[in-house]
From TrEMBL:
Molecular-function annotations in GO: 3-oxoacyl-[acyl-carrier-protein] synthase activity; beta-ketoacyl-acyl-carrier-protein synthase III activity
InterPro entries for the chain: ACP_syn_III_C (IPR013747), ACP_syn_III_N (IPR013751), Thiolase-like (IPR016039)
Domain Beta-ketoacyl-[acyl-carrier-protein] synthase III C-terminal: 243-331
PANTHER family: 3-OXOACYL-[ACYL-CARRIER-PROTEIN] SYNTHASE 3 (PTHR34069), BETA-KETOACYL-[ACYL-CARRIER-PROTEIN] SYNTHASE III (PTHR34069:SF2)
Highest taxon in the source lineage: Bacteria
Listed name of the protein: 3-oxoacyl-[acyl-carrier-protein] synthase 3
Organism: Mucispirillum schaedleri ASF457
GO biological process: one example: secondary metabolite biosynthetic process
Keywords assigned: Acyltransferase, Transferase
Beta-ketoacyl-[acyl-carrier-protein] synthase III N-terminal domain sequence ranges: 101-180
EC primary class: transferase
């Protein structure tokens, strides 16, 4: 018997403010996003994360004193310093002997977070890890950039990774990859130390493409075509590698839960991975959009609410900014059911 980490609870939170994509628009039909939760001007990622955690504490009667580590994944922190996880720690009223850690990652972030939580627990450093994934990317997208704006929503998810003793691994098969050469394919240039501008006005100078989309160096830039090609290149080999190293095949997987980027990208990946269309592959970002590192736990919550069975072999995969990708196998049968 060994100490094992497992997912016990997941809860989600959206801002109470939505923007709607035009259902008659060709792009809307392609990406499959009809509405997106958008944070209000005074709402930050920490606010969304705190609400997601509070929902968990109340819904599942979680004792805050049991939280040994708080791990936050966000690309939109409250401040350059201090770490936003420390701010959340104070607002949640967690115990003082609690580790707090921020890490900056995007669409692969949830896989990284599960790996960190597993390492903390199975090395004996923690019994319960509160993993928070939260972003307000809408604040960093130019309102006239119609290539990017219709894709992204703001949201947070809280995952309680707990411990037990078992011969079985409940979080396993982790694999990661990085192509840092192509980091410019998804980027915000302005705001930190690398890019120097003569003035703030220069950073916010508007650049219009041939289709009328507008952005600035202070806003998200994404090479959409390049990102799709990237996912088609890296996701199928990683999926096959995880299956091979764990002596499994596609038929052995109960749920395929990938980063919910958009309908088109998920359909493209499903085809490239030769995953059958038999209900095990989840593709639904219609009412949330791409919420970065929160898409996978939000998808699990959606599956619970839709009464979609969650199995012992769920294959989770994330891919995006970095460029990065990662995947793992998770037993989701130990989660408390939706009430």
């Amino acid at each position: 018997m060994a100490k094992r980490a497992y997912i016990k609870h997941i809860t989600s939170y959206y801002p109470n403010n939505f923007e709607f994509n035009n259902p008659e628009n060709r792009i809307t039909s392609k990406i499959g996003v009809l509405r997106r939760p958008v944070a209000l001007p005074n709402e930050c990622a920490s606010d969304l994360a705190v609400e997601a955690a509070k929902i968990m504490f109340a819904k599942y009667n979680v004792n805050k004193e049991d939280i040994d580590a708080l791990v936050l994944c966000t690309e939109t922190p409250d401040h350059i310093m201090p770490a936003t996880s420390c701010i959340i720690h104070g607002r949640l009223g967690l115990k003082t002997n609690c580790m707090c850690l921020d890490y900056n990652h995007g669409c692969t972030g949830y896989i990284y977070g599960l790996s960190i939580a597993k390492a903390l627990i199975e090395s004996g450093q923690a019994n319960n890890v509160l993993l928070l994934t939260a972003d307000t990317l809408s604040k960093l997208i130019h309102p006239k950039d119609m290539r990017t704006k219709p894709l992204f929503g703001d949201a947070a998810a809280a995952t309680l990774v707990a411990s037990t003793y078992s011969r079985t691994e409940y979080l396993r098969g982790f694999q990661f990859g990085t192509n840092g050469v192509d980091f410019m394919k998804i980027i915000i240039n302005y705001g930190m130390m690398r890019m120097k501008y003569a003035s703030k006005e220069e950073a916010y100078r508007e650049i219009e493409d041939q289709y009328g989309n507008v952005r600035t160096d202070a806003a998200v830039y994404m090479d959409g075509k390049g990102v799709v090609q990237f996912t088609q290149t890296v996701v199928p080999p990683m999926l096959n590698s995880i299956l091979e190293k764990n002596m499994l095949c596609l038929d052995d997987i109960d749920n395929f839960i990938f980063h919910q980027a958009n309908k088109f990208m998920l359909q493209t990946i499903q085809k490239a991975c030769k995953i059958p269309d038999d209900g095990r592959y989840f593709n639904d970002c219609e009412d949330t959009g791409n919420t970065a590192s929160a898409t996978i736990p939000i998808a699990i919550n959606k599956m619970q609410s839709l009464n979609i069975p969650l199995g012992r072999r769920a294959l989770l995969m994330g891919f995006g900014v970095g460029l990065s990708w990662g995947g793992c196998l998770v037993d989701l049968t130990l989660m408390d059911p939706e009430e």
